[in-house]
Structure to design on (549 residues):
């Protein structure tokens, strides 16, 4: 019979998972963070106290060293409760440390890859692009930021809670939960949504100059005089199409260059753009 | 908000944004669009903060933390950029009409530079985490493993928060030196005089930066494009979004809305 796990263990796993990357280092990666999440004494077979990957027959000092010199572990932080929960369930069922480590090793790849696709390439850019779009079409900044941050945190909390529950419930069979949850297809849909949103923001941002000239931001900053405002005040369809076309070309250029662009290149391009602006004005 | 209170709040926000990147929480506070807006609100102009943060966001949005590559870290950078961009709304600077362009340019230059320094300092922090881990192992006696791990976490978090304060404080210090002109020998004249030399309005500056930002957004498109989908399908998805975005902006303009929640005059 599977031994019961203490109340509140899942909650503690979820809360500690928010800190799982605090000790990230080049040797054990998330290993120390995972150890810290698992440092809960849970009842094992026969009532003997056990801990995942660190308790058992060792003397306290030895257990401490084992905890502080963990095996390398890596996963997406939001999915890390799944691995910790599964290892704790295995410990409660009397699995050896080697068995727990094998499960941890097996989960490293899938939890990292799925999390990267679902969150870093999906959920996070999607919500940031929604926020950008909201701001561009006139939402109050603080209200928009607050709403999007709340939705983002709610989403990650749901994922962490699901991961902790699945791990603690299924132990070594936790792979079934990953299969059933269909995280991969969900990530693909999210990433398609990011493409859509990127297109939306690109066109809206291309039209930003027109919006600025309408008086919102620029007039607040006091930079425009009435002579600077376009006449007629509302731009025609031709202006909008021109600006949108410029945006589409730039977006397409970035997309075609894509992976060949180093992460710092857009920032360098911004500095070059400012330099050109300065030179153009100084020259004329 | 008083100067000391605003400075303290900005340093705290910078520390939070830096911690939020990796060590604590991973909410969106580490993103320039969010951090910049909040910093702008602290200084007194959330719209200007959102503009600077949004432009910086476009530049770094395509840098996803996937694989072993050093990335720009925009947490503290967004806070500094948002705060600097909002300066013209404060009594610190005189109401010079040329200033918003200069402050936006300065905000983004500082933001880009700090994002690079942030990425580099994050590598140093992680090396430091390893040293702290090794020190904890040496100190480990008969104490409880949980307690030792808790202390280790506290030390690492403190180091990361300190890094955030240093990055934010350093960025604000450079901004202060440039705003007052003390960074240029012989220029110490008055607040904002150096920035007023910037030869472009905020609009022109934003357009130049936005063009580079769209390049960064294109990088995101290339990185997140789902595998197995045809290029035509992906381009179609982005193009559909393009039309929707243009329609939204046109509708917003027709109803008189403008960025930041105001209405056009």
């Amino acid at each position: 019979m599977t031994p019961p796990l203490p109340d509140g263990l899942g909650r503690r796993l979820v809360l500690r998972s928010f800190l799982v990357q605090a000790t990230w280092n080049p040797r054990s990666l998330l290993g120390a963070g995972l150890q810290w999440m698992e440092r809960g004494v849970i009842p094992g077979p026969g009532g003997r106290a056990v801990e995942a990957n660190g308790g058992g027959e060792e003397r306290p000092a030895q257990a401490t060293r084992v905890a502080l010199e963990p095996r390398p572990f890596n996963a997406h932080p939001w999915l890390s409760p799944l691995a910790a929960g599964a290892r704790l369930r295995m410990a409660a069922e009397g699995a050896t440390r080697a068995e727990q480590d094998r499960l941890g090793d097996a989960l490293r790849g899938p939890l990292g890859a799925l999390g990267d696709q679902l969150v870093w390439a999906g959920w996070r850019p999607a919500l940031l692009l929604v926020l950008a779009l909201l701001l561009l079409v006139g939402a109050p900044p603080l209200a928009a930021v607050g709403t999007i941050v709340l939705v983002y945190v709610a989403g990650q909390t749901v994922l962490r809670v699901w991961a902790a529950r699945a791990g603690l419930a299924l132990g070594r069979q936790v792979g079934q939960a990953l299969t059933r949850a269909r995280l991969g297809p969900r990530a693909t849909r999210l990433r398609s949504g990011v493409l859509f949103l990127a297109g939306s923001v690109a066109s809206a941002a291309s039209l930003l100059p027109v919006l600025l000239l309408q008086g919102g931001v620029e007039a607040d900053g006091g930079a425009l005089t009435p002579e600077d405002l376009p006449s007629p005040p509302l731009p025609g369809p031709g202006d909008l199409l021109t600006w949108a076309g410029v945006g589409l070309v730039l977006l397409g250029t970035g997309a075609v260059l894509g992976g060949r662009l180093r992460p710092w290149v857009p920032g360098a391009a911004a500095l070059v753009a400012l330099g050109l602006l300065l030179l153009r004005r100084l020259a004329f | 908000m008083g100067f000391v209170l605003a400075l303290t709040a900005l340093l705290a926000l910078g520390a939070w944004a830096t911690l939020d990147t990796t060590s604590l929480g991973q909410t969106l506070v580490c993103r320039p669009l969010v951090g910049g807006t909040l910093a702008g609100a602290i200084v007194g102009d959330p719209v200007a903060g959102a503009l600077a943060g949004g432009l910086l966001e476009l530049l770094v949005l395509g840098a996803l933390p996937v694989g072993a590559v050093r990335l720009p870290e925009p947490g503290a950078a967004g806070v500094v950029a948002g705060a600097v961009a909002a300066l013209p709304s404060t009594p610190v600077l005189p109401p010079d009409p040329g200033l918003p362009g200069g402050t936006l340019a300065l905000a983004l230059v500082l933001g880009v530079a700090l994002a690079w320094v942030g990425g580099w300092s994050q590598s140093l922090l992680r090396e430091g985490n390893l040293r702290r881990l090794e020190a904890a192992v040496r100190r480990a006696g008969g104490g409880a493993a949980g307690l030792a791990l808790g202390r280790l976490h506290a030390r690492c978090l403190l180091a990361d928060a300190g890094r955030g304060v240093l990055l934010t404080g350093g960025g604000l210090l450079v901004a202060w030196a440039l705003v007052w002109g003390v960074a240029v020998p012989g220029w110490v004249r008055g607040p904002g005089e150096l920035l007023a030399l910037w030869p472009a309005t905020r609009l022109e500056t934003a357009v130049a930066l936005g063009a580079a930002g769209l390049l960064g957004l294109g990088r995101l498109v290339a990185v997140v494009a789902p595998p197995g989908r045809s290029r035509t399908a992906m381009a179609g998805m982005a193009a559909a979004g393009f039309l929707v975005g243009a329609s939204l902006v046109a509708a917003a303009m027709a109803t008189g809305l403008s960025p930041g929640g105001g209405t056009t005059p």
Q: What stands out?
A: Chain A touches chain B through 127 residues (CB under 8 Å). The mean pLDDT of chain A is 80. The longest strand of chain A covers residues 42-43.
